[in-house]
Specification:
flat; 88% helix; 2 helices; mainly alpha
Length: 43
C-alpha cells in the first residue's frame, strides 16, 4: 500500500477546485479515487 502516493493525490486533488472549478474537479476526483483504490489493492 503506497500511503505517500495516496496522500499526495488527495492533497493535489484538494487544490483543483479553486484552480479549475467544480465542473473539472468532480470527474477528475472520481478518476483519481478509482486509481488510488486500484493502487490499494495492488499490494
Amino acid at each position: 500500500m503506497d500511503v505517500i502516493n495516496l496522500a499526495e493525490s488527495f492533497s493535489f486533488a484538494a487544490l483543483l477546485p479553486s484552480t479549475f472549478g467544480l465542473e473539472f474537479f468532480v470527474p477528475y476526483f472520481s478518476i483519481i479515487s478509482s486509481f488510488t483504490f486500484m493502487d490499494l489493492f495492488r499490494v
